[in-house]
Amino acid sequence: MMNFFYTYQSLFDHILVYALLAMSQYVVLRAGVFSLGTAGFAALGAYGCALLITKAGWPPFAAIVAGTVLGTVASALLAFPLSRLRGVFQAVATLALVQIVLSATQNWVSVTNGALGVNGIPKVAGTGVLLSVVVVVVLLLVAMGRYSVGRAMDVIREDETVAVSLGISVPYYHRIAFILSGLLAGLGGALQATSSYAITPGEFGFGMLVATLAMVVLGGRTSVWGALVGAAILTTLPELFRVFADYRNVVQGILLMLVIVYLPRGVADTVIAMLRDRRLRRRTVRLPADAVASGAASVGAAPVSSSIDAGVHA
Amino acid sequence: MLMQQLLNGVVVGSVYALFALGFTLLFGVNHIMNMAHGSVFMWGAFAGLYAVTMLDAPIYVALLIGMLAGGLVSVALDVFAFRPLRRRNAPEFSAIVSSIGADLVLLAIAQKVSNTAVMRFPFDAFPVVVYTVFGLRIQLLQLVIIGLVVAMVFGLVWYLYRTSFGQRIRSVAYSEQTSRLLGINPGPVNMQVFLISGALAGMAGVLIGLVFNSVHFAMGEPLLLRAFVIIILGGLGSIPGALIAGLAIGIVQTLAVAYVSSGVAEAVVFVALFIVILVKPTGLFGQSTAAMRIQRA
Amino acid sequence: MTATLVLEEVARHFGGVPAVDKVSLQVPAGQITGLIGPNGAGKTTVVNLITGLLHLSSGKVLLDGRDVSREEAPDLARAGVARTFQNIRLVADASVLENVVAGFHRHEKAGLWANLLGLPSARAEARQMNERAMALLERFGMAALAEHRSGGLSYGHQRRIEMMRALATEPRLLLLDEPVAGMNDAEAESLAGIFRSVAASGVAVLLIEHNMRFVMSLCSQLYVLASGRLIAEGLPEAVGRDPKVVEAYLGA
Question: How many domains does chain C have?
Answer without folding.
Answer: 2
